Amino acid sequence: TQLLEQSPQFLSIQEGENLTVYCNSSSVFSSLQWYRQEPGEGPVLLVTVVTGGEVKKLKRLTFQFGDARKDSSLHITAAQPGDTGLYLCAGAISGYNFNKFYFGSGTKLNVKP
Amino acid sequence: ETGVTQSPTHLIKTRGQQVTLRCSSQSGHNTVSWYQQALGQGPQFIFQYYREEENGRGNFPPRFSGLQFPNYSSELNVNALELDDSALYLCASSLGVFGPYEQYFGPGTRLTVT
Fold first, then answer.
1. Average of pLDDT values for A106-113?
2. What is the mean pLDDT of residues A39-43?
3. Are residues B13 and B111 in contact, defined by beta-carbon separation less than 8 angstroms?
4. What does the pLDDT read at residue A93?
């Protein structure tokens, strides 16, 4: 079982539609990151959220960290074909002198023109 | 400023063999983490190196080992390869180990074990 559950696993929408991806856990994270990954490439960091209830905006993308720091969401407004990719959330749990990141299994987004 | 690089890009090995994967961290970064990403899954944490020492490990057997060099580049070694080791291996570099630090990933090495 994954420490972080992402939903939905797959999403196929038309250009211009809005969507939300969810990342849930029963564990508390010291921070949470969202990445986008293209086929054959490494994940690219989109945002880091740290404080419970924090909201960050990156153009048409809005990221929210849950008040209890156990969950997060990514909302995309007016999706474009360029948004197509695998979206991954990763929560950090701090140990003695290190941060270990736990990834969700990803949401594969396809935006059709 | 150079990004994270990994070599080789692709590798095919036979079950039972050993493999070494390499990673050059982003300029100025002293921490490297290695991840295994199976097809259709999110990356799984293997271990992390900070200033040439392993300082965190995921649920991977001892046949997965690593090194970090004085220039902060790193190697991942896998002995006695198994078919399930076929995956994309990613390294990520960052500055420091105390959060919330940001990780920057390389393009990965695609390992196929036959």
1. 96
2. 89
3. yes
4. 84
C-alpha to C-alpha distance for A58 and B82, rounded to whole angstroms:
42
Q: What are phi and psi of A98, to 5 degrees?
A: -155, 160
Nearest to B36 by CA among A23, A101, A4, A11: A101
CA distances from B114 to B12, B21, B83, B84 (A): 7, 17, 6, 10
3-state secondary structure chain B: CCCCEEECCEEEECCCCCEEEEEECCCCCCEEEEEEECCCCCCEEEEEEECCEEEEECCCCCCEEEEECCCCCEEEEECCCCHHHCEEEEEEEECCCCCCCCCEECCCEEEEEC
Rounded to 5 degrees, what are φ and ψ at A81?
-55, -30
Q: Of the candidates A31, A35, A98, which has its C-beta nearest B48's C-beta?
A: A98
Q: Looking at the complex, does the CB of residue B106 fall below 8 Å from at least one CB of chain A? A: yes
In chain B, % of residues over pLDDT 70: 95
State whether B103 and A104 contact (CB < 8 Å). Answer: no
Query: Shortest CB distance from A98 goes to which of B50, B107, B110?
Result: B50
Q: In chain B, what residues touch A92 (CB-CB under 8 Å)?
A: 99-100
Mind listing the pLDDT tens digit for each residue in A19-32?
A: 999 999 999 998 99
Question: Which helix or strand (DSSP H or E) is residue A27 part of?
Answer: none
Q: What are phi and psi of B88, to 5 degrees?
A: -95, 125
